[in-house]
Task: structure prediction
Amino acid sequence: MGKALEVIGLSKRFLGLQALKEVSLHLEEGEILAVIGPNGAGKSTLLNLLSGLIKPDQGRILLLGRDISHLPPETRTHLGLGRAFQIVQPFPELSVRENLLVGALFGKPGLKRKEAEAWVAEVLDLTGLAPRAEALAGELTLLEDKRLELARALATRPKVLLLDEVMAGLRPKEAEEAVALVRRIRDSGVSVLFIEHLMPVVRALADRVVVLDHGEVIAEGTYEKVAQEERVREAYLGRRA
Amino acid sequence: MRELSHLPFLSFFLLLFALLPFLPLGIWGAFLLDVGFFIQLFTAMALSWDLVARTGQLSLAHGAFFGLGAYGAGLLAPHVGTLPALVFGAFVAGAGALLLGSVTLRLHGLYFAIASLAFSEVLRTLALKLAFTGGPIGLPVPPPFGGVWPLAAYYLSFGVLLLATALSLWAEWSPFRLAQAATRQSEAVARVLGVRVVRVKLWSLLLGSLVAGLSGGVYGMKTLFLSPYDAFSLGRAVEALVIPIFGGLYSTLGPLVGGVVLVGLEQALRLWIKEGYLVVYGAILILVILFLPRGLVGLLGRRRG
Result:
């Protein structure tokens, strides 16, 4: 299998803070990869670099073998990179359906309106948002907001999907549903890289885990393997005196 | 994509304007035609401002686009005739918009507003100082089509209003509306969803400036005289933004209703009250903005995006 996403020596500095330091990692095609780490480890910086909202100081990002390091966010989306935000940012004055249409119509240039509308209807069904399709996005509950965030990213027809703590704030039952949903998305041929704080979710969902601390990769492997590593425990629990 | 229920309402307004010169208005005829002329022109300005506002760009440059169009058309009209001069004026305004747009790509909301204000001030100063504009003395403009047809200016302004309405409806009913709304509500999210934000903003500004430029051109042909303070007036940019806020933002119906009511009201108050009519005008404006945050069309109970 090829690599869906490859990150080579990615570094980013904000004023005095080294947010990421020569981070290298990859996402296999059809894989679900979790990126975990304590607060401030650089997870969100990594995602912002991947989707192109900020520019790296050093390093390269390959999407399906193509160097996207210097492409603007919209072009990355056109090439098949989707992203759901941690802080849900629906367009509040648009309906749920219209929110998805934005992704469907502009996520892949050249798509006909009819095709985009049909695809949106599919995504609405898949994410369980169909009954709320005509509601204004500003009127949704938190759970629905989370679903919309995921659905909108999906509407762009990504080959690689970046999920930024989409389960945060969900009840265990809801998180279970969301885990099942992400699996269905992967089974439809999408590779998934997700950031998550909830360890049960990471354990249930991730094929592989990458651990970041202070902007560096400190461990990588299956959940069971990284959970036992001393450095990971230290990063999460603090160093023993 | 959007409900078509506005259409009869819109058509009614446009038909009224088309037929106004033929209605039996008696001694009021000439006055009402003048009022109608300004309503059409400033409503077109309001629509063109709204078209830009839908991307989150608060333009204070519409007075400048108006002035560029007015001077462009006014300078060329004696040599090439009315319609080519108007088109040229619109292109001059469009060139100004591309210049402004390309240096303010990253700016949003208030920051764009300040940049567009500066742009406006620079152009007025240029119009004052450059030789070929006539400077502070002003520029005489010939009436449209050699002045042979008294209704020419009126129908030119009607044409500009039609064009502005058509553009606004297209933007409202096509996928362009979603691109504009997404850009306005969050540029970063819009980009991550694949919206070419820069293009959407530039196109909106360009289309808006073309309409504003045409309005300016027609204005000069009606007043027959341009001065930098009049043509590049900041007041005109403010009127272009007050009308959509008064009528209802981000729609075609809002600026249209707002323009008819507000410009009509201004003319009527000027006639009835004479001294201090602006006090009453301002009070009505404040009341509407306070109690109808979604503008007059908010009364229709329709949501928009």
User: Anything to note?
Assistant: The interface with chain B takes residues 51-53, 72-74, 77-78, 83, 85, 89, 91-95, 98, 101-103, 105-109, 113, 136, 152-153, 155-156 of chain A (CB under 8 Å). The longest helix of chain A spans residues 172-187.
